[in-house]
Specification:
- It is built from 19 helices and 13 strands.
- The strands form two sheets. Strands 3-2-1-4-5-6-7 form a seven-stranded parallel β-sheet, sandwiched between helices. A six-stranded parallel β-sheet has the order 10-9-8-11-12-13, sandwiched between helices.
- It is globular, with a radius of gyration of 22 Å.
- Helix 7 (about 185-195) packs parallel to helix 10 and helix 18 runs parallel beside helix 19 (about 485-495).
- The longest helix is centred in the C-terminal third of the chain and has 23 residues, at about 460-480.
- By secondary structure, it is of the alpha/beta class.
- It starts with a helix and ends with a helix.
């Protein structure tokens, strides 16, 4: 029996799907409704959030800040002026003004060469962007000293990619640190196994053994940077994950055994219900287009904020979408430039040379909508007309797609995405593969794209995927509102406010 078939039996023991829940609740962690922790206790505890400075990492930690703020906890969200401006502009599904206990703090990196903690040899290995992050260590240290002097307990929750810059916290009184992982638990487990060398049960071991090595998914600078983070991670006693047992229960249990400590699954952190009450100023123009389309008739196409496709690949994608005969929304932006000196690209269009006449044809036929700036992905996925999502399979996109009950067409680009693709398509079986990772250096033809879109949107297999992910979406929503995920969050808050 193949490993994937055996895995179906194993995984079914841990996952119980529920029918989709219908609820008018916009946010299960409503600030006005949720106040179970004593205010006198929470006023003595400060939460310091330290995100890695890319959108895919900023967003889940801002959502975590929202939830922690709903417990009346004081939350300090650290970033640069650029990253803080970007994350506030791009947050979706809720209003920052409803959470007044969140304070944004703009960090100023120390000038290169003036830091005693970052050597020239390290800078040469990791490049300018990673160096700019390491130069935040001293301002973070100074800020933590100030905050910890004013609160009974200071709780630092940092992205796993920021472990090196928060390491000074362990020497300060009344501070405890928690590592937040923005990747799937499945991917975290696979990385942990590579480090610990501890055996896994079959068939999980066989599936993980087939995953591509890190060297094929990360560039050399990123690998060096990751090594620095791993070497600075000895002081964590627990881990936090943007997932829940309804999605990854078996992997959460296995990861706790691998790391021999508590792993809190407190997600998905994105809102699982979207309020329909939005003013006209807040409504993106794509929604008036979507409102005219049939149920599950539109595929949403987006490859995240750090992906740039070649001109040739953009053309093939355009022809493939057009030839599929399916309606689509395509977010076509260049990757955000890295660096503190970069201006905010969130309102700037991308200059792509699409095939001649393409935009005019799809507009006249009413089959396509192209967005060249930022788009509110969560709200788009929540729209009833969306029936599929072609994605790079970053974990935020996977989590949002599952939450909103939308199956995926996976097109991994780099990093953890190839491993997430295996989780989505082979384990959870809520998506199909557009491009195999083995063929990552080859152009994906318009014909292959056309066939993938039709398969997801207009076939019996696609309909089966929609039913399966709809069941999972219902279970996830129930978990976040009143189930295991909510209990995990309550447990974590009780732990840090003890």
């Amino acid at each position: 029996m193949c490993s994937s078939c055996t895995f179906d039996h194993l995984y079914s023991r841990f996952t119980k799907y529920q029918k989709p829940q219908t609820s008018s609740m916009a946010d299960p962690f409503d600030l006005k409704k949720h106040n179970q922790i004593n205010n006198e206790v929470t006023s003595q505890v400060a939460i310091v959030i330290v995100p890695y400075l890319e959108q895919g990492h900023l967003n889940p930690l801002l959502n975590l800040s929202r939830i922690l703020s709903s417990y009346k906890l004081h939350v300090f969200f650290l970033g640069t002026s650029t990253s803080n401006r970007q994350v506030k502009f791009r947050q979706s599904g809720w209003d920052i003004l409803d959470f007044p206990t969140i304070q944004f703090h703009d960090l100023v990196p120390v000038p290169p060469g003036s830091s005693s903690s970052v050597s020239t040899s390290v800078m040469e290995k990791i490049g300018s962007f990673f160096t700019s992050i390491l130069l935040l260590r001293e301002p973070i240290r100074d800020l933590l000293q100030d905050i910890s002097s004013r609160y009974r307990r200071t709780v630092v929750i940092n992205d796993s990619g920021m472990s090196w810059v928060v390491q000074d916290a362990v020497s300060m009184p009344n501070i405890e640190c928690y590592c937040f992982h923005t990747i799937s638990v499945f991917t975290s487990l696979s990385f942990a196994c590579e480090t610990t060398k501890k055996p896994l049960p079959s068939p999980v071991a066989e599936i993980i053994a087939e995953l591509p090595p890190r060297e094929n998914t990360f560039d050399s600078e990123t690998i060096e940077y990751i090594k620095m983070q791993l070497e600075s991670r000895d002081f964590y006693s627990v881990g936090l994950h943007n997932s829940c047992k309804e999605i990854e229960g078996v992997f959460i249990d296995l990861l706790e055994k691998q790391r021999e400590n508590k792993q809190w699954a407190i997600g998905p952190l994105n809102p699982v219900e979207i309020s329909k009450k939005k003013s006209s100023e807040q409504t993106h123009e794509c929604f008036s287009w979507l409102d005219k389309k049939e149920l599950n008739s539109v595929i949403y196409v987006s490859f995240g904020s750090t992906t740039t496709l070649s001109k040739e690949q953009v053309n093939e994608l355009a022809f493939g979408l057009e030839q599929s005969g399916q309606k689509f929304i395509w977010v076509l932006r260049g990757a955000d430039k890295k660096g503190e000196d970069n201006v905010d690209n969130s309102k700037r269009g991308s200059n792509f040379d699409l095939p001649e006449g393409f935009e005019k044809r799809i507009k006249e036929k009413g089959v396509g909508f192209i967005e060249k700036n930022w788009a509110p992905q969560l709200e788009i996925l929540a729209h009833g007309s969306i029936g599929g999502f072609m994605s790079h399979c970053g974990w935020n996109s996977c989590s949002e797609s599952i939450s909103m009950g939308v199956p995926m067409a996976a097109w991994p680009i780099h990093s953890d995405q190839p491993r997430n693709t295996v989780l989505i398509t082979k384990v959870l079986k809520i998506g199909i593969v557009v491009r195999d990772w083995e063929n990552r250096d080859k152009l994906v033809s318009a014909v292959k794209i056309e066939n993938a879109v039709r398969n997801l949107m207009a076939s019996a297999e696609g309909e089966e995927l929609r039913l399966r992910v709809a069941e999972m979406s219902g279970a996830v929503k129930k978990s976040v509102m009143n189930g295991a995920s909510r209990k995990e969050m309550d447990s974590f808050v009780a732990h840090i406010t003890r």
